[in-house]
Amino acid sequence: MELKLKQKDDGVYELDVKGNTCPYPQILTELALKKVGGAVLEVLTDNPPSARDLPLVLKRRGYKVEKKKEKDYWRIRIWK
């Protein structure tokens, strides 16, 4: 399980968790959020349960979340 985290722009990071099923997208997202601190994190997932559950969990933890369906995956944008 590799943390595929890269910086896109100043203050914006992207985490690719495509190909992973629950609970790995959530675990990797939590690790990435710790690494990026207050930056924006965009998570790419192709797992429907993760696309459904990840925003709910993060909102309960006080994060702002936007979810957008791309071609064959979801882009979940997370920030405080």
Overview of this structure, please?
By secondary structure, this protein is α+β, with helices and mostly antiparallel strands. The chain has a single domain, classed as Translation Initiation Factor IF3 (2-Layer Sandwich). It is 32% helix and 35% strand. It has two helices and five strands. It has a five-stranded mixed β-sheet, covered by helices on one side. The radius of gyration is 11 Å and the shape is globular. The N and C termini lie far apart (26 Å).
Please tell me what the overall shape is.
globular
Name of the CATH homologous superfamily: TusA-like domain
Tell me the distance between the termini: 26 Å
CA gyration radius, whole angstroms = 11 Å
What CATH architecture label applies? 2-Layer Sandwich
* Average of per-residue pLDDT values: 95
**Number of individual domains:** 1
| Main β-sheet, spatial strand arrangement | 1-2-3-5-4
The number of distinct helices, counting runs of at least 4 residues, comes to 2
Number of strands: 5
Which runs of at least 5 residues are low in confidence (pLDDT < 50)? Answer: none
Determine the strand fraction and express it as a percent band. 35-45%
Overall CATH class: Alpha Beta
